[in-house]
Fold this protein.
Amino acid sequence: MEFVLEDAIAVLSRTPSTLSSLLQDLAPGWIESNEGAETLSPYVVVGHLVHGERADWIPRARIIREYGESRPFDPFDRSAQFRESEGKSLAELLVEFETLRSLNLKTLRDWSLKSSELESKGQHPSLGPVTLKELLATWVAHDLDHVGQIARTMAKQYSSAVGPWKAYLSILTDRL
């Protein structure tokens, strides 16, 4: 599928409400459980998405637009969500995510990017040259990856409870 900015924005705009619908007002077992050592709970994933809204997508797009490849992106702190989410409820994180995402999508729309601008290059600190279009497409895939991760983590809470049906539920055996 070709990248179409309007289609990307349509997906990105749905993630906050999708996560709110899926997670809001659930018991702690659903939002605090993970898939095992070094995996993230739904709560931590939402915190990660909040941090990404502040430090990743639009800030990196700004760097591409202003500096091109002459200034590399700032490295992304993959553990910032633990510090930044401390003391916050999931409800607070979901509202924060929705607010930041709305502002970031407004910024993206206000730029009125032309297709030629989407080919502008920036410098990722470990991947090297990347285009604005690749960054924006990754933003969409990143959202969908984490929505899937949250659903998989939640499904695994009933891994034993489903009994013999486990054999038919690939979501319960993925990433073992």
